[in-house]
Amino acid sequence: MYAYTYTRYGNPDVLNHVELPTPTPKANDVLIRICATTVSAGDWRARSLTMPAGLGLIGRLVFGITRPRKPILGTELSGVIQEVGANVTMFHRGDAVIGFPGARFGAHAEYIVMPETGKIVHKPDALRFEDAAAIPFGATTAYDFLVNKGKLSAGERVLINGASGSVGSACVQMAKHFGADVTGVCSTTNIDLVRALGADRVIDYTTTDFTTQGPQYDMVVDTVGSAPWVRTQQALVPQGRMLLIAGSTSDMILGALRARLKGKRLIGGVASESVEVLRKVVQMTADGHFHPIIDRCFDFSQMIAAHAHVDTGHKKGNVVVTLGSPNNTGKDLHSAALTHL
Ligand SMILES: NC(=O)c1ccc[n+]([C@@H]2O[C@H](COP(=O)([O-])OP(=O)(O)OC[C@H]3O[C@@H](n4cnc5c(N)ncnc54)[C@H](OP(=O)(O)O)[C@@H]3O)[C@@H](O)[C@H]2O)c1
């Protein structure tokens, strides 16, 4: 099979297009032929070792001290089951699936082996492979933070910082779905997109600092790391809570204590990458309550260009890479994705 590997950290040029043996599934594994994958913020961090200030050492411990431990990137995928191990009962050859290797990576390849009890669910027929691949990373993070960690309630006033990104665009849609009053923060070019996602109000961060507008929000979600606790606390009502999906080392370590001292809460940590949450967000997508936003769709041969686009830090939603799925149009799908809204 063909795959993209990297043996040192750096810019997209560290990626190599190589031929490797196709992996063989063990008794409890499935072999998936990948039809579409994405270049996510997780891939960007692991490839470039870009970590929040002060977390460089932790980044090396996670991804590999002197060189990358996992040579193939790719956190999410859609595809077709090619082969099943002797003990596999939940999947059959030919099943269309969505997989979320997440921090285990491995989806920037033509094939991947995953345990049948891993984060794999059947792909709803109505979903295109391109859209299906763009669900797991952003939507499971949004769901886990808003619902499981943040205990979002209907009627709450929620602000999403970074509302046009993969995680942010999912947060806006899910917070609306669960009955919140949603304010999205993005740059000028993304105002229409964030409105179309369902935000009740949009703040342009290039002209307005939401932290100076007074205490208005029950919940502030930072998906960027540009709203430190010391400023964000001013935007929270008494007992308000901040969900720190991306942020500084200082806030990650001391934020919860600082927030408690003010009678508020700061909730950080890592999103749970569970199959239960994956199943929920895929069902939400099938039911029309969530639409993964696709910025651009690249061919597998353009993987390095796809990484370079993500490196700008300004992608809209998700960057998809296709590997010849049955319904691959090869076109820029941004407008197509938006027509769903
Ligand atoms: N804690 C966890 O478990 C977890 C899980 C998943 C992801 N993450 C982290 O979450 C972060 C976001 O991931 P993602 O996939 O959503 O990334 P992304 O798609 O690249 O989104 C980043 C967004 O940030 C916006 N942005 C940039 N500067 C901004 C600013 N000053 N104010 C407001 N928005 C700004 C950009 O929009 P504009 O173009 O409009 O500027 C862009 O759309 C990453 O750091 C990732 O590592 C954490």
What does it look like?
By secondary structure, this protein is an alpha/beta fold. It has 2 domains: 2-135 and 292-339, Medium-chain alcohol dehydrogenases, catalytic domain (Quinone Oxidoreductase, Chain A, domain 1, Alpha-Beta Complex); 137-267, Rossmann fold (3-Layer(aba) Sandwich), CATH 3.40.50. It is built from 11 helices and 15 strands. It has helices spanning 41-48, 56-63, 129-133, 136-149, 166-177, 191-196, 229-232, 249-261, 275-286, 303-311, 334-339; strands at residues 2-5, 16-19, 29-39, 77-84, 96-99, 111-115, 120-122, 157-161, 181-186, 201-204, 217-222, 236-244, 265-267, 294-299, 318-322. The strands form 3 sheets. Strands 3, 4, 5, 6, 7, 14 and 15 form a 7-stranded mixed β-sheet that branches. Strands 10-9-8-11-12-13 form a 6-stranded parallel β-sheet. Helix 5 links the parallel strand 8 and strand 9. Helix 4 crosses helix 5 and helix 4 crosses helix 9 (275-286). It starts with a strand and ends with a helix. The model is unreliable at 327-341 (pLDDT under 50). Bound molecules: NADP nicotinamide-adenine-dinucleotide phosphate (NAP). The site of NADP nicotinamide-adenine-dinucleotide phosphate has 27 residues, from helix 1, helix 4, helix 5 and strand 9.
What is the H/E string?
Answer: EEEHHEEEEHHEHEHEEHEHEHEHEH
Q: Helical proportion?
A: 25-40%
Q: What's the total number of strands?
A: 15
**Beta-strand content:** 15-25%
> Major β-sheet, in short?
7 strands, mixed
Name given to the CATH homologous superfamily of the largest domain: Medium-chain alcohol dehydrogenases, catalytic domain
Using the 3D structure, state the CATH architecture of the largest domain.
Alpha-Beta Complex
Classify the secondary structure makeup into a structural class: alpha/beta
Tally of domains: 2
Quaternary state of the chains: single chain
Low-pLDDT runs: 327-341
What top-tier CATH class of the largest domain fits best? Answer: Alpha Beta
Ends distance: 37 Å
Mean pLDDT: 94
